[in-house]
């Protein structure tokens, strides 16, 4: 169980769904990204971590239940799977307005130097803040 879980709401927008009222599966990624951005804005950066470039190296989604026009706003729980030297894993659990889990998205993000196009180590402060939300023990 994580030490902390960050939770936020993400609106299901009118244009997110098809003619049958189902949200397109690709939007699960967008909902996860929006929650991740809010997590960094609300928890990581206010702790003193300086915003720098990062890239998504891997993304995996398990679709458990369709999201419909009536499902929103969805709630996204964000927790950290692991913290490495230059990368970290984030879990996004997407629930509908009734609390039913619709999908689970896991992402691996890497700190990135845009000039050299290589990974860079996570600052110790960022590692510490991310570890507060870790499900598993931090990897050194």
TrEMBL record:
Record-given protein name: Acyl-CoA thioester hydrolase
Pfam family name, one: 4HBT_2
Domain of life: Bacteria
Keywords for this protein: Hydrolase
A molecular-function term among this protein's GO annotations: fatty acyl-CoA hydrolase activity
SUPFAM superfamilies: Thioesterase/thiol ester dehydrase-isomerase
UniProt entry tagged with the keyword Hydrolase: yes
Organism: Rhodococcus maanshanensis
């Amino acid at each position: 169980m994580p030490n902390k879980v960050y939770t936020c709401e993400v609106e299901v927008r009118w244009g997110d769904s098809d003619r049958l009222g189902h949200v397109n599966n690709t939007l699960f990624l967008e909902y996860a990204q929006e929650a991740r951005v809010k997590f960094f804005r609300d928890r990581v950066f206010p702790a003193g971590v300086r915003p720098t470039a990062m890239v998504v190296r891997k993304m995996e989604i398990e679709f458990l239940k369709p999201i419909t026009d009536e499902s929103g706003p969805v709630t996204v729980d964000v927790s950290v799977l692991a913290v490495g030297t230059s990368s970290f894993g984030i879990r996004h659990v997407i629930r509908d307005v009734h609390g039913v889990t619709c999908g689970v998205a896991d992402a691996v993000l890497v700190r990135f130097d845009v000039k050299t196009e290589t990974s860079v180590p996570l600052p110790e402060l960022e590692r510490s803040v991310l570890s507060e939300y870790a499900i598993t023990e931090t990897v050194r």
